[in-house]
Amino acid sequence: NAGVTQTPKFRVLKTGQSMTLLCAQDMNHEYMYWYRQDPGMGLRLIHYSVGEGTTAKGEVPDGYNVSRLKKQNFLLGLESAAPSQTSVYFCATRRDGTGELFFGEGSRLTVL
Amino acid sequence: AQRVTQPEKLLSVFKGAPVELKCNYSYSGSPELFWYVQYSRQRLQLLLRHISRESIKGFTADLNKGETSFHLKKPFAQEEDSAMYYCALNNAGNMLTFGGGTRLMVKP
């Protein structure tokens, strides 16, 4: 089992470009999350999903969109990238009934 | 609103010394707290949770509701403990809130 897989792992964008990060899981978990990790600020929740077809805003949703068309996939989109979105992005799933999260390896995004 | 604070960004100790990574939280309900760890070039992973009251890799953490703290402790630090540690709070809803993280460096 791969667990949680994120693609791409690295990406460099120019300001104003768009891109999509893909998170795929094979654990059949209902809950999926997108976090960003910035030095000194820890992990901040961008958006999350409690099941197929549902999404909700987290702590820092502005500038991002998400979709959960299939249970196993959770996509994070940047419509018009800004330098402030330079960060490491982590996808996570949550074991049902617990607070335990399972993380992907992270995707490092640089916006020039 | 819930909040998790880790006051130290960096903690440096010598091998064999005791370690305490501090975590304070604010939450109006009954909290569920966790410690996550990220070793170099590895994924973020669960270290321990307060409900299970377990000791993992020699680490323990006790929930102190009076002081709203969940400090992580180990009596004798090892070099392989060097990592980034995050305290996290589950609000019994759908979201896990993380602290800012503490980087632990264990020197030989």
Brief descriptors of the model:
heterodimer, A: 112 residues, mainly beta, seven-stranded mixed sheet, four-stranded antiparallel sheet, 11 strands, 0% helix, globular, B: 108 residues, three-stranded antiparallel sheet
Topology:
The complex is a heterodimer of chains A (112) and B (108).
Chain A (H helix, E strand, L loop, with lengths): L3 E4 L2 E4 L5 E7 L5 E8 L3 E8 L6 E2 L7 E3 L5 E6 L8 E8 L6 E3 L3 E5 L1
Parallel strand pairs in A: 2-11
Antiparallel strand pairs in A: 1-3, 3-8, 4-5, 4-9, 5-6, 7-8, 9-10, 9-11
Chain B lengths: L2 E3 L4 E5 L4 E3 L2 E3 L5 E7 L6 E5 L10 E2 L10 E3 L8 E8 L5 E3 L3 E6 L1
Parallel strand pairs in B: 2-11
Antiparallel strand pairs in B: 1-4, 3-8, 5-6, 5-9, 7-8, 9-10, 9-11
Distance between the termini of chain B: 41 Å
Query: What letter string, H or E per element, gives the SSE order of chain A?
Result: EEEEEEEEEEE
Q: Work out the strand percent of chain B.
A: 35-45%
β-strand number of chain B: 11
Gyration radius of chain A, in Å: 13 Å
Oligomer state equals: heterodimer
Strand content of chain A: over 45%
Which class best fits the helix and strand makeup of chain A? mainly beta
Total beta-strand segments of chain A: 11
User: Counting H and I runs of at least 4 residues, what is the number of helices of chain A?
Assistant: 0
Mean pLDDT of chain A: 94
